[in-house]
Amino acid sequence: MPGSGKSTVGKLLAATFNLPFLDLDHVIEVGEEADIKEIFATKGEPHFRELEQQYLKKTTDQYAQFVLSTGGGTPCFFDNSDFMKARGKVVFLNIEIADLVERFQKQSLETRPLLKEYTSKPALQHYLEGVLAKRKPFYDQADFRISTSAKSPSELSETIISKIRS
Known about the structure:
This protein is mainly alpha-helical. The protein has eight helices and four strands; from the N terminus they run H-E-H-H-H-E-H-E-H-H-E-H. The mean pLDDT is 95.
């Protein structure tokens, strides 16, 4: 899910395994010379999802080993989930909706195109619950499903490392 800590935990994992860390949204922004917000505003979500798939495949072709943080919707479109599982280990950071709402209430949602219109706590919670319900079947296909409840990023990283090594 957006805001679950994918980038933070991904950087820790990459450092532990001495691998490059890549954030798929950043890769898209560099490649398209536009930020995600701008891509959504000018070309729409369907175009963004096509770019996401293209850059996912392009990135995995460029690197033998790496840690990649994808957007929360990445595994839910096209064959991305199967593609990621065929290329490596997929981790789902399972965050409680209440925790997400609290995180998002503390930050500006302007940089999150799918969330920016949900300014009230109930509206945001309702939206996130709906998103999770749609995405959960894809998230449940991950190799590892890690609950983020009451865990720091370093604790999450250690849990994932332990599971990968075993």
